Each structure stands twice: as C-alpha cells, then as structure tokens.
Amino acid sequence: MNADVLHIAVGCLIDGYGRVLIARRPANKPGGGKWEFPGGKRERGESIEQTLARELDEELGVSLRATRPLLRFHHAYRDRTVLLDIHCVTAWTGEPHGREGQPVVWCEPDRLTDYDLLSANKPIVDALRLPDAYAITPEPGPDRAAFLARLPALIERGVRLLRLRAPGLADPVYEALAREVAAITGPAGVDLIVDREAALCRRVGAAGLHWPAGRLAAVASRPVPPDQWLIVSCHDRAELRQAQRCGADAAVLSPVRATPSHPDAGPLGWPGFAQAREDVALPVYALGGVGPGDLENAWRHGAQGVAGIRAFWPAPV
Ligand SMILES: Nc1nc2c([nH]c(=O)n2[C@@H]2O[C@H](COP(=O)(O)OP(=O)(O)OP(=O)(O)O)[C@@H](O)[C@H]2O)c(=O)[nH]1
Ligand SMILES: [Mg+2]
C-alpha cells in the first residue's frame, strides 16, 4: 500500500434496536466538528482488526466481541487520502462513551443523514440503511391476483427491499401492477424498487429505481433525487466503477454462480466477486444462485448481502 495513504479502521456499533453510534470529531482534528463513526489510524505492525479493537477501546472504552466487514474503499480529501476499512460491531463489552470528551449519539440508520458526517461517509450510511437481502420478483404471469397474494408471505419472511422485475409487461401494465404492489409493500415498510423510467418511480410512490449499468452510463446525471434509491445491475468491475461515478447508491453484481435463468453467463465465483467489488465505494449485493444461506460467506467476500428471485420468492399459496 502507498505509504501516503492513511489506513483507517472504522467501527459501526449497532445496538439491539438497530441504532448506530456516531461521534463528533474534536475541533482540532481534520474534519473537526463533523460527525463520524469511531476509529482511527492503523499503527505499524498492527492488523486492521487490532487497530479497530485498540481505537474503539481508546475512543469509547469498549472491548469488541463480534464484528464483520461492511465496506472498504479509498477516499481522497484535499489534503489526505484515506483507506477506510469499515466494520459492523454487533457485540461488545463495556458501556460506550466519549472517552476523549467527544459527544456520542445513538442514531437510527435512516436519521444519519440529519447529521453533518465526514464527506467520505455517504456509502457507509447507505450500507447501514440498506438491508442484507434484496428480493427480486419472478415474471408475474397472467394471474395478477395470485402474484399479489404471494407478497404478504415475502413480507412475513422479513424482506425489506423488493424489486418488481417484469420485463415481459408493456409500460402501462407494469405501472399499474407497480401501484398495486406499492399499496401492499408501502404500509409494511418495504422499499419497492421499480425498473424503467425515473418518472414512473415518482408516480407510483416507489422507494427507488433499478437500472442496468449501461442505461445509467447513457444519461448525463443521476435520474432520481437523493431521497430515492438508485440501484444498478453490474457484471464486472468496470460497470461497478462506472455506477459509482454516475451517482448510484448500491449495485448488484452477478452471476456469482451459474443459474438456470442465465446458463451461458460465466460465473464469477466468490473470489471473482470479491475482486470485482474491491475498492468500490458502494454497497454491492451478490446475485446468481445465492440465497440467505450464503449471507455470512457473502459478507466475507465484501458483499452488502444477497439478492435473488428463487431463494426469496415464496411458493404459490
Ligand atoms: N474515524 C473515522 N475516520 C474517518 C471516517 N470517515 C473518514 O473520512 N475518516 C477519515 O479517516 C481519518 C481518521 O483519522 P482519525 O483522526 O480518527 O485518527 P485517530 O483516531 O488515529 O486520531 P489521532 O490522529 O488523534 O491519533 C481522518 O482523516 C478522517 O477524516 C469515519 O467515519 N470515522
Ligand atoms: Mg479517531
């Protein structure tokens, strides 16, 4: 690693209510007065896990018990470049407090944007707000009532992010169905992600838009406002990087394994997945022959979580 790059261990403590701990940086440090996730610089001879443990002890007075990687990316500030190595911390001992006199706050992920965070932290906030599963619908088929009747079971299973994928439907038919799906998912707190036009996303009251990488590359600017998700389908590192440049919030990278729906696409495998998503400042879901049972493995390979159709979609009721 370049010696001029500061390697930083960052810890996102998550409590039993799903809240995250943030701290206010002292005025005399770079980015003073802004909010951050606790952490600090790796010292010579330390592993990044050791740095994380030391920094969270020094800054918060806690001992780590369970962590997992969340994101890892470079960010260039005007005066310094950092490699942020971000981990979720889900178990610890000790009561976290600002040991260096810094104010600390427990914050719901959706409220993090109310705080003036360090400017590198946008992807971290997105990763904390997004769930670890992204469910995608199969083609709805001719019986729309039967299709809609399967949604409650999906919600029951804890799905919080759902893409309505129906390439076989004409635009007006798709839009009408999207409204019906939104009427079920909205009250249940599920974020519905739609395909097609950004204006359709607004009209049906969806939470965001899903586009293939090529479509995003062809427009001049991000097609949705900051309060709607923009999730992009990618198949390699170049597409992920481009999605990041074009202002995407998250990506789906596929196929991890060969699937019946895409038998000809060469699978990435987990090492290929990890390599392609390395140093991309976006939460990236793994797609293609994976499901909830792959979650731990997906995290270890740099994924936000798993995405899929078959693995999530309940059997007909
Ligand atoms: N801890 C932390 N650092 C971050 C975050 N985001 C981000 O860009 N950084 C950058 O990473 C670097 C972290 O350095 P730090 O000041 O926390 O380092 P430290 O705890 O070792 O402080 P020290 O220099 O007083 O010993 C800073 O340049 C900071 O701007 C974040 O969320 N948490
Ligand atoms: Mg620090």
UniProtKB/TrEMBL annotation:
Alphabetized GO MF terms: hydrolase activity
Boundaries of every Nudix hydrolase domain copy: 5-132
Enzyme class (EC, first level): hydrolase
Recorded superkingdom: Bacteria
Record keywords: DNA damage, DNA repair, DNA replication, Hydrolase, Magnesium, Metal-binding, Mutator protein
Assigned EC number: 3.6.1.55
Pfam families attached to this UniProt entry: NUDIX_4, TMP-TENI
Catalytic function, reaction form: 8-oxo-dGTP + H2O = 8-oxo-dGMP + diphosphate + H(+); 8-oxo-GTP + H2O = 8-oxo-GMP + diphosphate + H(+)
The keyword Metal-binding is assigned to this record: yes
Reported cofactor(s): Mg(2+)
UniProt xrefs under InterPro entries: Aldolase_TIM (IPR013785), MutT-like (IPR047127), MutY_C (IPR029119), Nudix_hydrolase (IPR020476), NUDIX_hydrolase-like_dom_sf (IPR015797), NUDIX_hydrolase_CS (IPR020084), NUDIX_hydrolase_dom (IPR000086), ThiamineP_synth_sf (IPR036206)
Protein family (similarity comment): Belongs to the Nudix hydrolase family.
Designated name of the protein: 8-oxo-dGTP diphosphatase
Species of origin: Spectribacter hydrogenoxidans
